[in-house]
Fold each of these.
Amino acid sequence: MITIKCSKCKNKIFKYKKIGKGKIIRLYFDRIHKNYAIKRDGKYLCSKCENVIGIDKKKFVKMRDIAFTYSGHKIRK
């Protein structure tokens, strides 16, 4: 389980079950454990500073790599 935070204000955005190695490019909805973000006009925003974190693509959230940081452990395949 990893915790994704806003890069500007360090507010929690998502708790996510990351499987495998590699960068976080997209978040699949079935692996999102907890969502703290605001969804507006198909975009996910930080609930505190309204920084754009990602874009809704129906099956997943396409993440902006400069908009977030994360910590935690990834699960190996």
Note: The chain has one domain: 2-72.
Amino acid sequence: MKFEDLKLSYGYPLQLQANNSGQPERFSCRLIGCVSGRNILLSVPRQAGKYLRFRPGQKLVARLMVGNGVGLFACAVETQTTEPYPILFVTCPTNVSFRGIRGATRVRVELPIEVANLNATTEKLVSGIIADISNTGARMEMCDAVGGIGDQILVKCTVEVLGISRELELDAVIRSRVERSTQEIDENLPAIYGIEFVEKDEDRRLLLYAYVFSQLAEDEQSN
């Protein structure tokens, strides 16, 4: 896979790793820009509030979350600027390797949701529930059909963590349309979907993780 094929938005988070010692550290940065086939422009990572210094030619490994896995590529530092902004220029990789990660543990819930299909011409909201959820996806039981496989959707809900309620909106993609069980047919649930969360906002993802982990903890205590 070529780096350009990832079609990353500016501001996308990455991690840089330098194998200069026996205990390599990873430093967080963000994508600023890309000159196809030549350079990738990154924000300069900080440590203890200070910008790190990288030397020309220094070899780095970059990591980033892509879909349901981790993308990896090797690069080298070309230059680092301080004016007008701190920017790290690294070589553009010939390819990016991809390593899938095992799906996260799911927990049963009964979370009321409203869903909008972002590919539709109207912004109609369809009600339903999330029946089980993980950090990476969920099973939705909807009162009406909301879309087809591959459609991008927006899931709206209210989650509670340690007695604190927060509104949460998550971007997701419909990955499957699930066959209904006899019970689901009896309960008049016409549309059952498997979805993958593709939310990029870090604050929303943190709230999602907090909710999932709190539900897992409650599930463990009840068993």
Note: The chain has a mean pLDDT of 84.
